[in-house]
Structures are given as C-alpha cells and as structure tokens.
Amino acid sequence: MENTAPEEQYLRLNTEQNALDYLERAAIFIKETVGDIKTWKWVMIALSGALYGFAIAASAGTNPSNSVMTKRDKLIGFWDALKLCQDPDHMNMLIHSKPLILSESQKESIRFMKNHLRNGFEHFTPKLWAIEIHGMPQITIDVLEVIRFLALETNTYLHLADEEYNLVDSLVHQSIAFIRETALYKEMKLAEELYAQNS
Known about the structure:
By secondary structure, the chain is mainly α.
C-alpha cells in the first residue's frame, strides 16, 4: 500500500461567518437551558462572541486597519467596537447606513452579560458562585435584538450571503419566541407585573 499524505482540509471563516457561528451556538444552547440550567453559561459566552463579532463586522468599513485595528495591529476591544457602532459619524458609511441606538434595557443587559456573566464564566476564580437566573431570558432577548440590528440593519459594508442573512433573522426570531414561552421568562414577567401593581 502506497504511503500518501492525507488531503489537506481547512477551516475557513470570515468575520461575519465567525460571528454567525457564535449566534448559531447561542441558539442551540438557548433551547438546552430548559433541561439544564448550566447551559446559561454557554448562552452568555456565545452571545458575547456573536455581539462582539457582528459589532466588528458592522463597524469595520472598507479599511479595517483604520477602524477596528489598533496601531499595534490588534483588534479593538468589545466596548470600543460597540462605541464605534453607536457613532453616527463613523457608521454613516453609505446612504442607508444607520448607527446603533441602544435602549436603557439593552445597555444594562449588555453590561451585565459582559462584565459580570461572560467575564465571570471565562475567568472563573476559586469560589462557589450562585447566580439567580430569572434575569437571563430578558438579557438574552435584549442582546439578540442588538445582534439582529448590527447584522441586518446597520447597512454598512457587512457581508452576508442571502442564506446567512436569512439565517441570522431566523435564529434571532426563533430564539426570542422560544424564550418567551419558557416558564422562567413567564415567572419573571409575572413578578414584574405584581411588583408594578403593588408599587
């Protein structure tokens, strides 16, 4: 038998495909949270990756070196990318381009997801960490809505094939619909209504 080298195989990703992969993972993990609450860890990690990835893709423009790369040829950080996406002067690249405008709920959800949850999970220090999870569904919905805007509505030089565009839209829509049917989300909404009535 003749010895031959295996055929080379490559994993190829561009910026948009990398962000979309995170979003696809998030959608899978969201459905798994009903049976395994530890999966919320992976939801937060995947959502953070998707949000960061689409923020970079939306704000990169035609010359990423001048927009999303530092002078030392490193990618700008999470918060700098989101700041760029909210800057009208930067984001008005084309006639139909739009900057990101965050609601107060979205700002708080992103801050908590990134600073507290994602960072806490990825840089887990020796401890026992108990996390009340009723807030997770609303955080997830808020972040998914921002991801959808960055991917589909900024109208910059972000490159998604038609099937990728439709997949983003479908993943966000289906994930939000799924979350809103969970007992966890409904319990939180009921608690909010009761609190409002008694205030």
